[in-house]
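Protein 1 of 2
SEQ + STRUCT:
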Amino acid sequence: MAHNEKEKSINIELGFYDPFSIFQGGLRADFEKYIKVKSVYWKDSNDTLRILKNIEFRYVEQIPHAKLESEIVYSKLMFVCCNNIDDYRSKIRPLIIEWLKIEEQESPKLPRFIFLFENSELKNASDKFLKTNILNKLKVDFPDVSNIYKIKSLFYTETDKAESWKLICDAIRSILPDAINIQFAKSKGDLLKTAAVYKLLNQKDDALSCFSKSFNAIPYIKKEVFSKLEPVKILKALQNGELVQSLNNNFMRKSFLLKKQEETLLDNSLSDNVFKRNLGKFGRIILAYINSLEMCYRRNEISFLIISRFLDNKRLKTILASQNDLDLITNYIIKGSLSVIDVQFETEDYEVFNEPLKQLMKSKNSFLSAIIEYTRDLIGLFDANNMKMSNLAILTTELALILFYSADDYETASEQLVKSYDFFLTNGWKYIGIALLKTYIQNLHKLIASHGNEVTTQLISSYLTLSVNNMKTLDDTNFTELCMKIEEPFEFKAEKIFGVRTISQVYCKEVDVYCIDITLSSSITVNVDKVVLTLVNECSRIEFICFDVSLQHSNVLTLTCSAISFNAFDIYGLKFIIGNLHLDYDFKSRVDIRLIESFVVEQYSTLKNTSTSIGVPKLRDLNYEFLEMQLNVGSNCIANIQITVFNNIDRFLIDRNSELFLEAREGEEVFKLKITKHKNTLTLTLSEIVTLQACNVYEIKIPCLFSESDQMFVSYDLKFESIKNEGENLSCLQMLAASVDTTLPLAVATNEIFKSTISEKSDSLPDFFFLSQYTINSVLSENPIRIQSVVLSGGDSTFETWKPHKNIIAFIDQGTTFFYKVPAFKNDTVVLRIEYSTMSEEIFFLVDELFRRFVAELIFLDLKMQIRFIQAAKILWKKIKFKYNFYALTFKIQLAEKIDNILNSVTKHLDFNEAKIFPDIVYDFLKSVEKFEIDDTKKSDLMNNTKSELQIVVDIPNVNMVTTVEYKYDRKLQYKEAVPVSVCLNVYFLPFGNGNKDKESKQNAQLKCKDDLVHLNVNFFDNEQKWIIAGIKSLDLLVDLKKASRPSGQHFEFNLTFIPLKLGKIQLPAIEIKNEGYKKYSMEIDYKNTTESVLVVSELNKVIHSF
């Protein structure tokens, strides 16, 4: 059945007094015909403008001193009839005075009308000449009545009649707004009367608001008020909404207000959509009504009656049948039924007075069967209509509780309860959720014998969920026994069980063991077999572990790790293991793990951890490079070491015949290493079982080929056993990675210049030698180098050199040069040794040592904090940039940039209290360092500790033959132009072999050619405009190798004449010697004075100035 919501008419009642039966005698029909108001605007007490439409007037007779038919009228009307003044004075006026007297007693006063009816048929011609008009007389006598009108029985035209009635209609419409406000003023303080006025005006929302306020003003009704009432009165109150002499009975009054709200909301004239919406509102009102009654059997029966009566609504049944719209009833039936969970009723007998309910409660079985059947039907109906899961969960809860407590159907109850408690806990109904969860746990205990491991894990999960919501409910012993029954590992997400408050920095309190503290809250108190904290990054995964922990609600756990990696890690999770139960707690945090070289334990004793590092050695051979691995044994002896390298294996120059050794830096300990090389790994182990002594330093040098790149990344592991003084040895693993800087900080350039010397004796032979020149520069502009010493050595050769001062600074654009005289060629190679230090290494050494002294003098720092600060400062010094060039020149240390950001990145590795004072200490230290003066003793110590050495193998040039060329002439201060000068050209030829006999024999063999002759061409060039050469201009020399043997060689002399052609300083004629014959030998030529210049003048002893 469809309902269209159309606006109902508003019935406005007008009270009338008709002593002469004028209105009843015929005027009523005219009033009903002509007095019609379609709409009127009305401003309420809140100054809100409203419109009232479709108004219909209802006329109610009100005789003075008689009982009123209606208490709510909006105006008072009086009808009188009079044809002469005498009747007016004797009859009409007294009646009006009496009527007004009674109306004056009302407060506030309603608008009043007086209507004078004129019977035109009884009026004669003489009446026209009356001096006094009765209508005017009425207006004069009763000035307080502003609405006095005359109504004629006959009008000349219909137009006149319509205008007359329109005037009356407009007057009545004009008084309506005030009349309505007067009604509200009369009902002020009485919400029920106010609601009645609103309802008559079709203002349903306002009427409902008044009823609701009165309804809510009675929040709670004790059972004594309604439990003893007769059933007839209760039914009458619920069905008819009558007060039934119960103005002082809150139950009857609230029942009356419930009925009034029902009448307002469930109006059959409403459309289906509005009616359904109002059903939901009324459902919530029913719920409030039921919840306001104190819990007892009578209250439940009343609830049953109200809900049954509501569901019997014909319009509701029609809507459900046509639309299956279940959302109308979920708000009140379900919540109302669940509001009685865990409430204890009185034990006295109770007699049900409702017949349908009596039939359901004949026996326990009939009642149980009916409840289960009804609940299942409703669940099926909800499911078929795709209702919300929350609605289904509430209904299934009812069914599960019945099945568990009454029907002993534990399996079905278990399936429903697990959904129910989860729903209530999730939606914040903690009390109900915990109660259901406890019931579910009891239910699982009933099933554990028959279902085994599956139910055990469900039971454990339920106990944990219960502990999260109520920490005092977990039975430690029972829970542990359940955990022992789990057959396979069972993972459980425990984010709500645990809470991590703080995580400490990684520290040490035992040699080679790293620790971390976690402050943890727990909702369970239980003994845990193992706690594992997992840390991960892109390269590795490590675990901190502690065993046999007794968890309390507040805990501080210390977890340890001996398989460590020094890097930044993200926390992957925290796992608590109890038997096969694994409680996984995931949380986000970051941990930076740094190498701890030393730490302080009790009695302020310092212990050291085993550590390793990898880099290029201090002594580097340019032609034979090594990677040096340094092993620093800690305070415990170690054994069974194994080093595994995982990358850049092809760069290591190791084959099956290679041998590597582990050598002690101090002492004579040398241990051979076993090498296992695969495609992707290189493993080094000791060939014999040995124990490496505590606090010793060992080195391994691995031949390596450095690439053109300045950096070489090496990833490697170090495994060893740390030998304790007491207890079992500790297996340790360090997963390490290093970026090795293979850059040489200096660049060396070399050059050889061959020279000879000839004694003044005429018969002496030239002495051949060469000068070896080396120029050393820094390769980085911001990091100069200090050249401490340069030595060229090789076998028994004697090398003469100019010895410069030590500690020469070499910059990138200002290098330093060294010369060495090599007089004999007895060695194939010589070695150039350069001892140097970089400014960055010197500054790092200085600030590190000075900082150690600085913190040692701070009395407020204990030894543990001093060591922590020294380790943090080491990281800081490597990141800070200093003024290296300024230091190289002055030995003064100054910063090149601000260090605030760098300092912040370092302090995050410290504890909170340490991080607060460390920056101030660093700033104070750096200020003091700027004033520090370095004495000679400190300089010597500094250079010894930062010294590096570079060895370069220099090949001696492979020379087969050396030739000297020299002009001999009479040397004068001036030579005259065009005057010949006698010159003797001397050429000495000497074959030269190497000290290596095999190599020398090969060279001599190479010198042998056809006829044992070497063809040399001597030629002058670039001299046509300066000199005329008399004699020869081109010479061909044939050197007989048999005659030109050492030590004498072969000597040639040529007499020439040079004639100068230009004035001024001119160079002697240039000369060039070429090998025109056998090419497979090398020859060096020493031009002694062929580039000399002489002064040529036009006249001798004449002064010449050159410009």
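Protein 2 of 2
SEQ + STRUCT:
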Amino acid sequence: MNSEMKYDSRMKINMTEKTSVEKTWKAYLNKIEPADRTAMELAKKRWNSVAKPIGSLGILEEDIIKIAGIRGNASGMKLDRSALAVMCADHGVVAEGVSQTSKDVTRIVAENFTKGETSTSKMCRVSGTDLYPVDMGMDCEPTGQKEPDMHRILDRKVARGSGNIAREPAMSRTGCLQALLSGIDLAFRLKEMGYEILAAGEMGIGNTTPAAAMSAVLTGLPPEEATGRGAGLSDAGLEKKKKAVEMAVSRFYEKYPEYRNGTKEQYESWIKKSIRPEMYAEVIAANGEFPGAYMTTSDGRLGVARLQFGNVVLLPQNAAGSGDNAFKVVHGTNAAPPHTYIASYLWTQFGFKADALIHFGTHGSLEFTPRKQVALCSNDWSDRLVGALPHFYIYSIGNVGEGMIAKRRSYAGLQSYLTPPFMESSVRTIYRELTEAVKTYNNLLPADGQAVLSTGNKDALNRASLAVKKLTVKLGIHRELELDSLLTVPYAEEDIQRIENFAEELANEKITGQLYTMGIPYEPIRITSSVYAMATEPIAYSLLALDKLRNRADGQVEKHRTLFTQRYLEPARDLVTRLLADPSLASDELICRITGITSDELAKAHEINKSRNTSQGMMAMMMALAEEAPAEAKTHADMSSGIMQADQSGCSKRNSISGSMKEKMKEIAKGMNPEKAMELAKKMGASPEALKKMETGMYKSRAVGMNTLAKDTVTMKTTSRGKREKADSDKFGGMEAMMKAMMSKKKEYSKEEMNFALAVVEVERTLKNVGNYKSALLESPERELTSMVNALNGGYTQPSPGGDPIANPNTLPTGRNLFAINAEETPSESAWEKGKQLADNTIEMYRRRHNDSVPRKVSYTLWSGEFIETGGATIAQVLYMLGVEPVRDTFGRVTDLRLIPSAELGRPRIDVVVQTSGQLRDIAASRLFLINRAVEMAANAREDQFENQVAAGVVEAERVLIEKGLTPKEAREMSTFRVFGGVNGNYGTGIQSMVQSGDRWESEKEIADVYLNNMGAFYGSEKNWETVRQFALEAALTRTDAVIQPRQSNTWGALSLDHVYEFMGGMNLAVRNVTGKDPDAYLSDYRNRNNARMQEVKEAIGIESRTTIFNPAYIKEKMKGEAGAANTFAEIVQNTYGWNVMKPQAVDKEMWNEIYDVYVKDKFNLGVQDYFEKQNPAALEEMTAVMMETIRKGMWQASGQQIADIAKLHTDLVNKYKPSCSGFVCDNAKLRQFIASKTDAQTASRYKENISQIREVAASKEQKGMVMKKEEMNTVGTEQQTNTVSNTVVCVVVVAAVLVLIVLVRCRRKKMQE
């Protein structure tokens, strides 16, 4: 009996019943139950309580635990009686000479069992085990013995020997089932005889030959590898045995070709089950006939790379395309995927017969395969490749935007996991001298309202300013803030204020710690530092907001971040420290004391906040009724119920409903018990006044109800219709009041009252959650694993918003299913307010930099992550720039727009142009239509008091298009096009690989042209969706003065995420080439939900670089990690190069000097080179290659010594560890020549040889299609993106694509549980 099955006497089926063998077999299978897990746990607990080292008896302990599960009882376990049944049979393949003896020996050995003359018999005697020889198929006359007897051979004969598998089937299916059923029946018989443990074995001459054949078929091993020598077989006999196995396997595959691993027949049998003929025709057109060019064997089969561990298989996700454009390979092309990519998924479904599929990593390529983005069908690749498999995707909480694609395009249930922990930058000491100098300067400033300084004081102030300037220039901060460095001219007060705030921001910046490993908790110190990062600023900014409302905070606090730190941030941190030590301190009394309010004011804040978050009208009724649903119909309680939810204000408020809906609700209310109505009204947020009226109405109805009902018919007939309605109204007085409460407009609060409530509730929520944050961070790793196992068991995975826990604490705990938002409700009301504020900040910043002029046109990048996490705040910025506001319908959806009157707007309407990511395009198409409609409304606005920049932009675009050769009609239609994205549904700009291949372009215009081509699809209307019109994007970019990129996560920045330079930098480059002017570049910084702001990108890069790659604390923290952590440094250096190409003004040469000092010369004596060589030499190879390319392209004027040092380090690494063959290391012929020219001849020769070997190695037949293309020194022209990625560097791409692993559980486990 299977040790995982629980025995049940009811399983025994009467073999004498006149049922077919098949039905009997299925009846047995349906009776099988899983082992009793409770009994197993009790047995395990008992074992562990015994005075011995836990687990010291190894597999013996495991077996006893399994036996407890089989028996269903962990107590009173006895195994006194044991039996061994030896199944004896002959194998026809003996005729092929595969054994040392003849088949007669089988019978002789069986008879010896009955005499106790075998080694097995002796072992049984020693152990007290009874031995029963069983004739299952010996080639002799049956004994006729039907009942078990140790001294006679038991007759269970199915046939006289099996067939010769080299030439015929061993037995029929019916015969096989009969043998299995005989064994089952024997097991039951022995159980009835009182045996408590049963062992089974088999014996028969030639038995290892069919076993080898079965192994070859089941494992896919070649027959010669699956065949062993056996007992005493000669070399000649072994060859015969191998031949017999090969014949058997070949004969099997001839009859069942679909079972042969990697064959065309097997592959095409799977194709027929899943892939439509026209789709497979595309595969052949793109990749050739089976097996294609990749992962093929010498005999023409197709490989599926995998590591198998029983029921679990790990597969690398093969490249979904081929070529050197890694971004496009992962994010999809329009071409059908290669055979090997398809085969890995179909093997999972039909070869391995998996029960579940898990993708690891953010992210793979499955969800980016071609065809539709929504409403998938059998024509879509992701639908076909996943099939009906339950699919789970393990995703970081910080990447909800891309997670939604995995849900939408591959039916994935997401399982969230933590971001890296957060920590303080620890750089305050580096800038302490500067901070003290600024403090000295500030102390010399006149106080507010004080007279002008005397001459002496002015001189002192100037000296203090020059002291600040000297330190600022020494530290290089003047470059990030674009201030002058002339040490004889003092900085102005405004300049020093910017320096002060920059230094303070550096000190308070939150950075990520070592990479998170799923299932392993943060270090205790990192849990604490993460809680500080989550809790300190919400408290500080909320207390500042309260002081501003009370006029207690002077203007100096907002001007000087050091004052904010002293007065608010540091006290808030101290408070968090106390609460970490004792969370119970977070009482209402503490909240009132900290916020300086009374308990009544706290109650009022609660009332206002409840009103703000309470739905009204139809939605309120629906939500309240949902609360009355039966328990079994309610959703599961949220795991994060222990955390008071942070207000993200993503939900719109529903304040009114249509007349028809009101009538419908009245009908519902008439049939409702008054007390029920009262309860419902409370849930719907009815005001205290309305509730009081309802209560009065209910008392009234009780008093008059009986009289009303007792009126006789005559009275009823004589009353007027109006009186009858009045009686009904009295009868249902409570319901009428409820309906009035529901339909009436909720109480209005002033803006000051709303801000007061928001600040108080934020303080309360944060204080009461400090302990919960710590617990959630500590428990999340375990929850992640538990949730994954629960999901595999078919359990419910609870929902969760996305975002890093600083920006949104509601993402904790992890191990939940990420969700997005309703795009139709965006921008939410809070997002609209935030967007207005940031749009005004943008205009203000631009005015400061450009002599009080406003930008004529602003370019915005829309990303799905920001859209989901902020509720559409960047879209709100776009609309407000245009002078248009959203209009909401009954359910809070933004379905219309209103032109804000010019007088109300108080400024010119500013033109916009929008580039959307593929992810945002796919989830919020209606918002893109809304934006372009807003452009048209703004362009047609009349009677504006200010110059209409939108109208002017439309005129200019039309002029440019006509100059380009378009007809006036075409130009007029396209002149309002403002929303663009990737052509052919692409997800990226397609310029990253080009940027990093510096030998393939000479001027930035070549990159700009590719960008304009690849991002030139119009997405602003349903009619022209994805239309590509030549010059449309170029015309839209005219007059652009600023580009803006959202940043909503604390886990990445402009340097650490390549997509920022790709999108924002790409737009910046395109604008510069269209207008001839480098635009301003700002980040919309949403990371602090209490202090959203705009930041100049050069300043942001300065903050990030100083607190990360140039910060010894950050470097040491990352060095705790392994290869992945080492690669983090390489990625930042790559992205620095990207920014240098896209916006040279953003990256100064001094930044490259610092990279050289820290990573080549080990400025901080951290042992960085040893770390890279131990963990990831390829990362340092990449960094040094990027540095050399920056020099070669003339973007960094490095000294001769710097060049020599970098070249030496790079070539030494290549010669010692071999080339990593990234784009910089291997694929840039001009760079390789440049590097070789900067080192000695011997080193250069070895370097060239190593590079050449890995590039020129010829693939064997088993490596067909894996040869790298020989590269010439010629400059390749501008890269033109095509639907099919070129067939180069495939092996590198395949390795790079090993981001996704699959965990699968065989279906027999599922069957056991059915």
